[in-house]
């Protein structure tokens, strides 16, 4: 699992105001921090717009008046937090209220999935988000839907929304920069996440979608091993690590230009965005249905060190960026590769491609200067079989 440690040298400074509500605005009421935290920690859903925060029947939070949080105390006094200015404490209560109500709702996997598929078709028809014809997209989405529902029957899952609520409350109250909701069987998430988050992990759930707006300071997003079909259309501008492998994603949105690591392997991608973040040093898109990668897309990634495009439908090998060190391209449909290879290349794994003997000179040149390694076993065997390399020469590679 990628973490903040992987990107700390690149991390921008986070203004203190993003982690602490800061100085209270003049004339605005604030609860004492200890009392506020106690109420938030004990807050439970009773009914629409009504929550309890203790065992006494008088300990009630009333949200029925727009823009106000009314907190009823044991002595029958009422503390009102207003939305004006804005009020960070008001926002915290509204966020916890949303999560408390969400925690009481039933599993909505099928409804959520159907809603997301409809939105994808509508958006593609209006904005032409993909190269896939509308009818083909509709057919693909129906197939994905059937597979998802077949593999994720309610009887085989336990959804622990209560634990997710507890973790979110602790994150909000303690101002932790990391929230981990992984492996809880969640089928959905509330739209609002703690705004101070820097790392968010929600892997190994059954999520069909993420919140449309992610925290603006987010640096690490790990949503692996879910059933996501799309990522949020707007990415946090400071995002540096995106792990979304092992989902059902059909296309990627416009990506944050600040990204350093992208792992979108094991999805249903047929193409990559025409332009990728220029600071990328690791890109993995293995195990998709990608049929082509434009040369200019990779050539512009001058800082890319690791590239894995194995197990796709690529027919021609792309031209590689100048500083690439590790390159996995096995299990495609390559008959040849681009030469010259980058001088920096140390690992070249191209096993499982249908090499063409008409391209022998190019293939021989592609492996010159590389040390013998398992990833070249198939290609070296092919070259030896076709008589272009003697056995002793193979041993020197």
TrEMBL record:
Extract the InterPro entries matched here. Answer: LRR-bact_E3_ubiq_ligases, LRR_dom_sf
What keywords are assigned to this protein?
A: Leucine-rich repeat, Repeat
Q: What protein am I looking at?
A: Type III effector protein (Leucine-rich repeat protein)
Question: Family assignment?
Answer: Belongs to the LRR-containing bacterial E3 ligase family.
Q: Where in the cell is it found?
A: Secreted
Which organism does this sequence originate in?
Answer: Escherichia coli
| Primary site of residence | secreted
GO cellular component terms given for this protein:
extracellular region
């Amino acid at each position: 699992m990628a973490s903040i440690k992987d990107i700390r040298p690149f991390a921008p400074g986070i203004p203190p105001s993003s982690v602490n509500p800061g100085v209270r605005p003049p004339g605005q009421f604030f609860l004492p921090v200890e009392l506020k935290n106690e109420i938030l920690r004990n807050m439970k859903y009773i009914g629409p717009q009504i929550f309890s925060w203790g065992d006494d029947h008088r300990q009630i939070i009333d949200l029925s008046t727009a823009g106000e949080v009314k907190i009823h105390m044991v002595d029958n006094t009422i503390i009102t937090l207003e939305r004006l200015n804005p009020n960070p404490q008001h926002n915290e209560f509204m966020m916890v209220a949303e999560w408390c109500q969400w925690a009481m709702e039933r599993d909505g996997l099928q409804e959520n999935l159907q809603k997301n598929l409809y939105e994808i078709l509508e958006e593609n028809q209006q904005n032409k988000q993909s190269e896939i014809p509308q009818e083909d997209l509709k057919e693909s989405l129906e197939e994905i839907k059937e597979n998802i529902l077949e593999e994720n029957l309610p009887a085989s899952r336990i959804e622990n929304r209560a634990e997710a609520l507890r973790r979110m409350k602790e994150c909000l109250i303690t101002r932790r920069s990391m929230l981990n909701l992984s492996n809880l069987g969640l089928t959905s998430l509330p739209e609002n996440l703690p705004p101070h988050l820097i790392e968010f992990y929600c892997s190994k759930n059954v999520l069909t979608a993420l919140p449309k707006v992610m925290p603006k300071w987010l640096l690490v997003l790990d949503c692996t091993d879910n059933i996501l079909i799309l990522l949020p259309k707007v990415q946090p501008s400071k995002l540096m690590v995106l792990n979304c492998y092992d989902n059902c994603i059909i296309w990627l949105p416009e990506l944050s230009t600040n990204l350093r690591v992208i792992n979108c392997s094991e999805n249903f991608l047929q193409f990559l965005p025409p332009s990728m973040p220029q600071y990328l040093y690791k890109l993995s898109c293995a195990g998709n249905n990608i049929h082509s990668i434009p040369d200019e897309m990779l050539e512009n990634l001058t800082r890319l060190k690791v590239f894995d495009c194995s197990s796709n439908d690529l027919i021609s090998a792309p031209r590689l960026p100048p500083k690439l060190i590790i390159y996995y391209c096995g299990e495609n449909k390559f008959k040849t590769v681009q030469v010259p290879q980058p001088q920096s290349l140390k690992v070249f794994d191209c096993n499982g491609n249908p090499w063409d003997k008409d391209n022998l000179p190019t293939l021989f040149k592609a492996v010159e200067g590389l040390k013998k390694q398992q990833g070249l076993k198939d290609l070296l065997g092919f070259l030896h079989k076709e008589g272009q390399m003697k056995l002793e020469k193979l041993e020197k590679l």
